[in-house]
Specification:
With 378 residues, this protein is mainly α. The chain has three domains: 59-123, Dna Ligase, domain 1, CATH 3.30.1490; 135-229, no CATH class; 239-376, no CATH class. Helices cover 51% and strands 8% of the residues. The chain has helices at 6-9, 12-49, 70-79, 86-95, 114-123, 145-155, 160-167, 170-179, 181-189, 214-229, 233-238, 243-256, 260-275, 283-290, 326-333, 360-366, 371-376; strands at residues 59-64, 104-109, 135-139, 204-208, 344-348, 353-357. It has a two-stranded antiparallel sheet. It has a two-stranded antiparallel sheet with strand order 3-4. Strands 5-6 form a two-stranded antiparallel sheet. A hairpin with a 4-residue loop joins strand 5 (344-348) and strand 6. Helix 3 (70-79) packs across helix 4, helix 12 packs across helix 15 (326-333) and helix 13 packs across helix 15. The longest helix is centred in the N-terminal third of the chain and has 38 residues, at 12-49. The N and C termini lie far apart (101 Å). The model is unreliable at 369-378 (pLDDT under 50).
């Protein structure tokens, strides 16, 4: 007898019993699986109804756009780590028949219950970001808008994105220009500017009090800049310069050296090149134009056609490349050695001093640049 024929020898009752056992086993496994899923779902929902972290009382500033749906609000709250599940929140408020949520900036915590969060969102938020703790923000000399934004987001409850958005807010910029025209008229009229306030958030330490808005903080910096430059507006006008041109050159001088006398001499070199209609050829400008560190620049970068690239474009550029110190501003307003006719400056690694020259040949002798880069220097 063949083995394959054994099953044919079994009684019909045995086949039925075996089939019943298999079906019962499958049903049992499905029931266990279903119960497991239901149990896990129950635990997840229960956990989602509880505060995300009852011990976390850190305040997070959350922005809810006007007109957001309940589902959108749930997603925003989950993304900002205020609640565990946006989906559970959505069904919860619908089941509770809670509605009429309002947009704005809210101060929320992960330790809040869903009831508390829903109630808070019904009260309405502030129209702009608000600080929730006493803090200090340091604007260092030579820092850019992007760097200042990162410092603000680190030290305060204001986000980097909100700060950058404010830097492009035309209504806010127009308000500042109208209030501080001597300081800001030139930058507001300049074309191809990345940030109109670049160079005007004056280096200093700013105290941020509770209930201070982001606009308040930025205006503090503008007020400081206006106060520092007020004594020089007449001088700037007398020298037939604009505040924007002074701040642009000062931002380049700021990054070249910390020595005041050398800053004055470098300013003199820049003015000589501008008068001779020679490009300033500043690596600082290329770095800013491409938003990459100077050390990462390649030969091809010097040829990139961008308004801030002063290897390509003559003049001062669209605007400042960072927020310069008063020392650099003063150096630009009182440059040295204009009559010597210097067009080049380079750091001499042997003498540890900055060397100045009229000719490119002398500059080339100390230049650490590659031959390809040197060929591009005019």
């Amino acid at each position: 007898m063949k083995k394959d024929d054994i099953s044919q020898e079994l009684p019909p009752e045995n086949n039925k019993n075996q089939a019943k056992k298999i079906i019962a086993g499958v049903i049992a496994l499905l029931c266990i699986l279903l119960l497991t899923i239901l149990f896990m779902t129950y635990r997840y929902i229960k956990a989602s109804l509880d505060p995300l972290d009852k011990n976390n009382n850190k305040i997070e500033q959350v922005y809810i756009p006007i007109g957001s749906s309940t589902k959108q609000i749930g997603t925003i709250l989950e993304k900002n780590k205020i609640i565990k599940s946006g989906t559970v929140y959505t069904y919860y408020v619908k089941q509770k028949k809670v509605s009429q949520f309002k947009g704005g900036y809210y101060q929320l915590k992960a330790s809040m219950s869903l009831d508390k969060i829903a109630w808070t969102l019904q009260q309405g938020g502030s129209s702009e970001p608000i600080q929730n703790k006493l803090a200090k923000v340091l604007v260092s000399e030579g820092t850019t808008i992007n760097q200042i934004g990162k410092s603000i987001s680190k030290e305060t409850s204001f986000s980097y994105n909100d700060f950058i958005k404010l830097m492009k807010n035309k209504t806010f910029l127009d308000y500042l220009d109208k209030k501080y025209p001597d300081l800001l008229d030139a930058t507001m009229a300049s074309k191809n500017v990345r940030y109109p306030l670049e160079g005007y958030l004056f280096p200093a330490t700013y105290t941020v009090y509770k209930k201070t808005t982001l606009k308040n903080l930025v205006e503090q910096m503008i007020v400081k800049a206006n106060n520092e430059l007020s004594p020089y507006y007449a001088t700037i006008k007398k020298q037939k310069l604009t505040v924007q041109e002074v701040m642009s050159l000062a931002s380049l001088v700021e990054k070249e050296t910390e020595n005041h006398k050398d800053r004055q001499k470098i300013a003199g070199v820049y003015f000589n090149r501008i008068a001779a209609e020679i490009t300033l050829q500043s690596k600082i400008s290329v770095s800013y134009a491409l938003n990459i560190p100077q050390k990462d620049l390649t030969t091809a970068d010097y040829y990139v056609d961008k308004p801030y690239n002063l290897y390509v474009y003559k003049g001062y550029g669209p605007g400042p490349f960072n927020n310069a110190s008063l020392d650099s501003i003063q150096a630009v307003l009182k440059p040295l050695d204009r009559k010597k006719g210097n067009f080049y400056f380079i750091f001499n690694s042997n003498s540890k001093k900055i060397e100045y020259s009229k000719t490119y040949e002398y500059y080339q002798a100390f230049s650490p640049m590659t031959q390809a880069d040197n060929d591009y220097v005019q």
